[in-house]
Amino acid sequence: RKEVEQDPGPFNVPEGATVAFNCTYSNSASQSFFWYRQDCRKEPKLLMSVYSSGNEDGRFTAQLNRASQYISLLIRDSKLSDSATYLCAARGSSYKLIFGSGTRLLVRP
Amino acid sequence: NAGVTQTPKFRVLKTGQSMTLLCAQDMNHEYMYWYRQDPGMGLRLIHYSVGEGTTAKGEVPDGYNVSRLKKQNFLLGLESAAPSQTSVYFCASSGEESGYTFGSGTRLTVV
Fold it and tell me: B47 CA to chain A: closest CA distance, Å?
């Protein structure tokens, strides 16, 4: 079993839709969590950190459920420019980030 | 502010050749990492460093060596390249509580 798992998608949604991704992690000692966005043939870029109390940044909301060991990302009012692959990551010991394989989002006109 | 810079951006190697990938960061980060990314496999950690002069193995270290002689630089070496090492290589750095900052990647093809 992978330490961090994501549904690979693709999620194909119309502009304006709300879409949610989940990501599960197996290491209960994981301390910090992040969502990254990766465009085709580009490097991953930090989208947002995930705090225990939840985190909102504009149209994006991230939440952490430690009891069930998953994190989520909600995107409201999807834009064409949101089309990308979204990677979740969990940090355990030694400050290493373990990444999921990514969820691909396609937003259509 | 350059952030994390990787060189080269592209490289084609013949099987058995060696090469070194350079990663440089100007954010005074303690931690640096090398990942490879393959289709369907996500990002896999090769080696990492928690400070100048220290290195440690990640998930897929075989066939690679690293050095961190200076805090700002983290070098990844391939001693004898194999076709299985064809991949996109990303370097990243971080502080204690921050997420990673990635370099733009090196696309390596081994023929």
Answer: 10
